[in-house]
Amino acid sequence: MMSLSSLPELDRRRTQITIESMLEKYRIFKTVTFEAREASVTYSYNERFHGPTNTVSDQTAAIAAHNVDVPAARRAYCAALDSVVDRLDTREQQLVRERYMRRDEIYDYTVYNHVFDPPVSKDTYVKIRSKAFYKMALALSDLGMLSLGSLLKNKAASKSGLPESIAGTLR
After folding, report:
1. CA distance 52 to 138
2. Distances (CA, A) of 127 to 7, 12, 16, 94
3. What does each C-alpha distance from 17 to 14, 23, 69 come to in angstroms?
4. Quick check: helix, strand or coil at residue 53?
5. Peptide bond preceding 52 in cis form (omega within 30 of 0)
6. Inter-helix orientation angle 12-31/122-142, to 10°
7. Per-residue pLDDT tens for 141-150?
8. Band of pLDDT at residue 160, cut at 50, 70 and 90
9. What's 65-109 look like in SS3?
10. pLDDT digits over 82-136, tens only?
């Protein structure tokens, strides 16, 4: 059990992969338009096997619910990620927005050489990104969008059955 005064120690690589995949989903939701489903006017033959005969399906209602729920879920996901990024430090915000949240693909070296003013070294960039991803993981966990259990540092060592000191040297 984690006390309130201590912060969990997360595996940096797993945290980076998880947060990057969430930001990629964000970028997809922002760039790819939602295609609304439409009800078919002509009924097609569906083979029905023996089963419950007391169920009624309403194609129009299911399509209408889908056309409302999916865009709302996409907007809520993007709004949650935007609010998490808004709470980061200025440089962390700049890094995350420029590298991961823009429509066009941009590379790490472009951000630390050309976007940051003054430019920073690759090592400083990695430190800023790691701190930002750590904060984002904690915030997304609080929102219920991410489980920290899979990101904990000692999880890999406990899975392998090796002590953390030995497992850490094997990674």
Report:
1. 46
2. 18, 11, 12, 14
3. 5, 10, 28
4. coil
5. no
6. 80
7. 999 999 998 8
8. very low
9. HHHHHHHHHHHHHHHHHHHHHHCCCHHHHHHHHHHHHCCCCCCHH
10. 999 999 999 999 999 999 998 787 889 899 999 998 999 999 999 999 999 999 9
